[in-house]
Design a protein that fits this description.
By secondary structure, the protein is mainly beta. It has no helices and 6 strands. Pfam families: Cupin_2.
Length: about 110
């Protein structure tokens, strides 16, 4: 057992980039924290792993090719591998607990 301290907590980004921190990594999954400030721009690309976001604080919209939804604290979002997605209209500093299965970046683009 391991307690993952700080996972999902707001941490202001330092510089022009949004803040991504990997808090735990094992072969079958990874857990991290993604923070985007009010008015920030989410520039991520689709991932090769399945992904779950848990909104721990903040408000925004999540946009995929087929759907747009308002999100806030407590929202849980599943994004399948390869699906384009983006957080937009960030009206409150956004902190997300992120779970990747398998671990982030462990699949190649060919899979």
């Amino acid at each position: 057992m391991q307690i993952i301290k700080g996972a999902g907590e707001w941490n202001p980004p330092t510089g022009a980039e949004n803040d991504w921190v990997e808090n735990l990594r094992v072969p079958d999954l990874s857990v991290g924290t993604y923070c985007i400030p009010v008015g920030g721009v989410d520039t991520q690309s689709p991932h090769t792993e399945d992904e779950i976001y848990v909104v721990t604080s903040g408000r925004a919209k999540i946009v995929t090719p087929d759907h747009t939804a308002e999100i806030g604290p407590g929202a849980v979002i599943f994004v399948p591998a390869g699906e384009d997605h983006r957080f937009e209209d960030i009206t409150e500093d956004l902190a997300l607990l992120v779970v990747f299965g398998p671990a982030y970046g462990s699949r190649t683009q060919d899979q």
